[in-house]
Amino acid sequence: xxxxxxxxxxxxxxxxxxxxxxxxxxxxxxxxxxxxxxxxxxxxxxxxxxxxxxxxxxxxxxxxxxxxxxxxxxxxxxxxxxxxxxxxxxxxxxxxxxxxxxxxxxxxxxxxxxxxxxxxxxxxxxxxxxxxxxxxxxxxxxxxxxxxxxxxxxxxxxxxxxxxxxxxxxxxxxxxxxxxxxxxxxxxxxxxxxxxxxxxxxxxxxxxxxxxxxxxxxxxxxxxxxxxxxxxxxxxxxxxxxxxxxxxxxxxxxxxxxxxxxxxxxxxxxxxxxxxxxxxxxxxxxxxxxxxxxxxxxxxxxxxxxxxxxxxxxxxxxxxxxxxxxxxxxxxxxxxxxxxxxxxxxxxxxxxxxxxxxxxxxxxxxxxxx
Length: 370
Ligand SMILES: C[S@@+](CC[C@H](N)C(=O)[O-])C[C@H]1O[C@@H](n2cnc3c(N)ncnc32)[C@H](O)[C@@H]1O
What we know:
Layout: H1 2-7, E1 10-16, E2 26-31, H2 34-43, E3 47-57, H3 60-69, E4 82-90, H4 96-102, E5 110-111, E6 118-125, E7 139-148, H5 152-163, E8 172-173, H6 181-189, E9 193-197, H7 210-216, E10 223-228, E11 244-249, E12 260-262, H8 269-279, E13 288-290, H9 293-307, E14 308-321, E15 336-345, E16 350-359, H10 365-369
Parallel strand pairs: 4-5, 4-6, 8-11, 9-10, 11-14
Antiparallel strand pairs: 1-2, 1-3, 3-7, 6-7, 12-13, 14-16, 15-16
Helix pairs in contact: 5-6
The protein binds S-adenosylmethionine.
S-adenosylmethionine binds at residues 176-182, 197-198, 230-232, 250, 252, 257, 259-261, 291.
GO molecular function, one term: methyltransferase activity
InterPro entries: DNA_methylase_N6_adenine_CS, SAM-dependent_MTases_sf, TRMT11_N
GO biological process, one term: methylation
């Protein structure tokens, strides 16, 4: 019985949304049904798309031969159906003409690129070679599309929540919450949130708030609070009593968002006198000074060591220059253990790393100083 059930399983090709050029992002798996494939995708944060696998080979010509001789039940065998075939190449770019040239498949249905009834993909994996890009693929697959996941950025917030091991009713804190876009992704799957940000945020509309964002998705019950503050103002956190189950954040690292804290620039005597007069005015906003990435990360680790519950996790992004990166660049703290360090490549030389740390020891000032 078990054997006959197993025989009914079909092959699928899972396309992972990763940027590791050396690794084939296409994984062959077996599943009982398209429904099961769709269910897996609904929980698979790093899954990009899943396809029913119709054939694979080491070159496109062999793949086409295999497909022509296979007895797959093709839903596009009748002329009243419509279809579309995409070509996805990993580690190689192809012009539209080159892509069209590769799809020499005769389906009876009509081509409809905007609203096809059936979608197919030719997936090609090229071995990575930065000097002499490979001309021929190492592996090619053809499959019928089953399901894709959302774009990468919201997906990353789910990945961060997963790494933070956030559970129902956990209290989660984002010290650099910004507009709360990422927070929304975390709250949609998990619960409990609390988040401050910094002075100087601008409104386009007065009702443009994190709480209203959450309301649109009926998630406001998970909202605890948000406040505008400079993260570096340690007087805000007047107790070292642990309170957050997870701290999940995307700190400003100067690419799109400048890293700044409240403080004074070096000034001449006359500037200082002028400022003293101005600061007595009722509507005074403090100035900002630049905030070095290393200091910001050390502050973040120190804050996490003080305010996380034991076993609680700190999850954050850290930018790196790939040529000079060594694992020792990751900041460390005696109360926090590094549990994961994974890379998202932006360009050949620049990437960022998703760092996950777990609080393993209670914070103790004497231990830190010795
Ligand atoms: C990379 S963005 C995070 C964006 C956020 N995840 C979102 O979905 O909008 C970093 C945020 O930190 C804020 N920020 C910069 N310096 C800060 C500081 N010293 N204290 C608190 N927030 C700060 C920036 O204004 C920006 O909104």
